[in-house]
Amino acid sequence: MKKNLIISIVVIMIWAGIISVSAETNFFISETAHYKVYTDESMAFSQEVSDKMEASFILFNDLLHFDTSTLHVKLKVRIFKTKELFDKYLLSLLDETRGDFVYIHYSDLERSELVGFKKEKIEDFDSSLLHQGFIQFVKAFIPATPIWLREGTAAYFEASTYDPKTKSFTWKPNLVWLDSLKGIIKGENNIELISIDRLLLMDRDAAVKYIDIFYPESWGLVHFLINSNEKKYNRVFWDTLSTLRPNNTLEENAKLVVKRAFSWIPYSIMEKDFKAYIMSLKTPYDFVKEGIDLYSKNRLEEAKKSFENAIKLDSEINIPYYYLGLIYYSERKYDDAEEYYKKSLEKGTDKALINYALGVNAFAANRFDDATAYLKKAKELDEKTYGAKVDSLLKRIDLLK
């Protein structure tokens, strides 16, 4: 394929047995081992998306271990540069549009496609790409995957992060649903969990009816089965995968999973362990709150671990870096303190606060010129808060020089 090739494609799709209006648009096409990506943005963007899809394929199969040699067609992905063009395309196919990416599946895999649009935030784009990309992936091998497993595992992958240097995704826990699920377990708003035996057999209509419970619970069950420290629950997940049959109906696969993967552990025990596991999980902000409380009690080593755990879950939160700076400052590890203060600044912490902290840190390390520069900057940024404090320290610096 020649670089920067732009081709005109006439797309004729059939939905519910009716031929839709054909759409003719110019697309940039990029192909990898398992994907064919169409975008109307640019060849560079098309190649970027195809790299991400190939990376997601590896991410998904590192967990599922499907025999990829059985896949004889390339999976199709179509990404529009605007939501308006995405809407127009879906209207021509389905006579309706969607708020987010969608995977359109047909019995003929070559006609099936994942359809999306470019988003302002890369992380939002990647999240949608991973979710619908997983649905596309699993349906390519097991068209009738139980709904809880399909949607729960798609959500399980959503927070994975992409490294353009290595062209790979790294899995990261997706805790978006955690607070909602904890609330359901606590019985807040008079909402109760769906019993596991019901969840396993739910079809699309039932999932839509109980959507506010179905999604967090499906994610939670998948997360629990994969990550539980009790190997019997890990086995349930692997047995579930090995039980699925590509030619079965949804009902047949769901019943097989119940019989062969879940029947040997009583549901009452599993539900009890499931609830306990979910309630033990913490979000990054849970760790931040815990760390601040421990810091206020001068339990610095414990506080440090809490802040480090918060960063592991979400490296973009600024608060843990600032408090780690404070902890290392109190331990007279001034280089480490400065590193964390600067990271906190990069993540969006108030500039005046960080410059003042850097100034105090540099003063304690006897780096008086650096201290003076930081302190003056803090005063310049917020004289009302830091003016008097800075003037006092600058006088001390003058006496010590």
Cα-based radius of gyration, to the nearest Å: 26 Å
Largest sheet: 6 strands, mixed
Sum up the overall morphology in one term: globular
Average of per-residue pLDDT values: 92
Number of strands: 10
Distance between the termini: 69 Å
Tally of separate helices: 18
Give helix and strand order, one letter per element, not per position.
Answer: EEEEEHEHEEHHEEHHHHHHHHHHHHHH
Beta-strand portion reads: 5-15%
- Structural class by helix and strand composition: alpha+beta
Low-pLDDT residue spans: 1-24
Strand order of the largest sheet: 1-4-5-6-8-7
Helix content: 55-70%
What does this molecule look like?
The protein is an alpha+beta fold. The strands form three sheets. The protein has a six-stranded mixed beta sheet, with helices on both faces. A two-stranded antiparallel ribbon has the order 2-3. Strands 9-10 form a two-stranded antiparallel sheet. The longest helix has 22 residues.
